[in-house]
Amino acid sequence: MDTIRTILYVLYIALVAATSVVIVFDRREPAKALAWIIVVALIPVAGLALYVLFGRNHRKEKLFNRKEIRDLEHIERLSGKQLRSLQNRQSLQLPEVLVNQEIITLLLNNNKALLTVRNRVELLIDGQATFEAIIAALEGAKESIHLEYYIFENDAIGSRIGETLMRKAAEGVEVRLIYDDVGSWSLSRRYVQRMRRAGVDVRCFMPVVFPWLTSRVNYRNHRKIVVVDGRVGFTGGLNVADRYLVSGGRKRWHDTHLRIEGDAVMMLQTIFVTDWFFVGGRPQLDDSKYFPRHDVEDFLPMQIASSGPDSDWASIMQSYFSAITKARRHIYISSPYFMPDNAILTAIKVASLSGIDVRLLIPGSSDHKIVYWATCSYISELLAAGVKVYRYRRGFNHSKIIMIDGRLSSVGTANMDVRSFEDNFETSAFIYDPTLTAQLEELFLDDLRHSSRINAKRWNSRPVLRRFVEAFSSLFSPLL
């Protein structure tokens, strides 16, 4: 018996030690590495399995390296067309651009996100306005429809959109749809086959099929993109599901989306084209009909940034960090899931301690309890640094927005958490227009009127059990 116990103990030590070495050499954040080592030490066999499934640093391993796609001749030609399409350099000397020059340069270097200046953008608040605008654009399609969603369900709104897609395909419009296999678990395969038979080219992003599970389940396409005829684009927080349409009660879904016309639509189209090749699509999508000329004359500078485990840099996280550290007056952040890495958390606290008005809006309740508890674990140190933290009380706030000094704003798919920064394929629009940023700030301040500000004294006197649950969730938050 003693011999068996000794053997098991030696195997345990060897397993934990070997796995710890692998984790350390993965060169991830120390907090994340330590969390995984603790998991493996506490539950060695299951912990090792979880690490293999969810923990590997594939940005370092280049598992999703798509440089060969970027180097394809048609992508290179497309980049050249977009560069030549930028307006004369006089526009680059305007105040809206000069005041944001550093973050614009950062996104050009870490993401090749071209600055576009001739754009028209409409804010869409909540599901009803967003879906009606999307369906109206789909109905007006003449040449092509491209959609890319994390969640696409064949419930009432999903079926309505799906029927529209099938009808447009029957009219001769090229219709392409990418859905994420994990986010769209409930999407009926029978419905997918029906769309395919109707002429809609439907592709699944990284299907999770054993034995390829280990390299795919943790890295998901969280983007929400619609491009119609290369002229109208949509992106933001809303997926395609009925729950995004709930407009009253505790389950009310509050969200923000963008309808875009102009130069920036080409960037959304480029992201879709690249993802289309990634999922096995082979048609030549560099034809001019996918990137047509437009007649938008409005001056609204913006960049469309993308990030994911296929990119060399965590570009969206770096851009948030740059924006926060450059703030001089105020920082407004709305995020449904707030589990930042150390860089972002430190930047926020330093900004507040420096006298900048930092306000953070999180949900009062969440659709993911563990994630909500992990979010709550950050509140005490934020309050200690003087950050004003609010909990939204009129339903679930899913908006992913950041606004800096009235000069810069970002609306997109990325949450203020490590998963969005490192593991998910995301898209965010960085907007350098004071008028649109002022609209977003006004909406944000209105949301604060439907929220409760957290009082530090009352917060720090909450029950010990609650604090333990939050602390425990915080310990494992790098894994979520």
Could you walk me through the main structural features you see in this protein, from its secondary elements to its overall organization?
This protein is an alpha/beta fold and 480 residues long. It has three domains: 2-55; 67-87 and 117-300, Endonuclease Chain A (Endonuclease, Chain A); 315-479, Endonuclease Chain A (Endonuclease, Chain A, 2-Layer Sandwich). Helix content is 45%, strand content 20%. The chain contains 20 helices and 19 strands. Strands 4-3-2-5-6-8-1-9-18-16-15-10-12-13-19 form a 15-stranded mixed sheet, sandwiched between helices. It has a two-stranded parallel sheet with strand order 7-14. Strands 11-17 form a two-stranded parallel ribbon. Strand 2 (144-149), helix 10 (156-170) and strand 3 form a beta-alpha-beta unit. Helix 6 packs antiparallel against helix 12 (263-278). It is globular. Mean pLDDT is 85; it is low at 67-72 and 211-215.
Alpha carbon gap, first and last residue: 39 Å
Corresponding CATH architecture of the largest domain: 2-Layer Sandwich
What's the overall average pLDDT, rounded? 85
Count every beta strand, where a strand is a DSSP E run of 2 or more residues: 19
Give the uncertain stretches in residue-range form: 67-72, 211-215
Estimated structural class: alpha/beta
Strand order of the largest sheet: 4-3-2-5-6-8-1-9-18-16-15-10-12-13-19
Q: The CATH topology of the largest domain, please?
A: Endonuclease, Chain A
Radius of gyration: 23 Å
Q: Any idea how many domains?
A: 3
| Beta-strand content estimate | 15-25%
Seen as an oligomer or otherwise, the chain set is: single chain
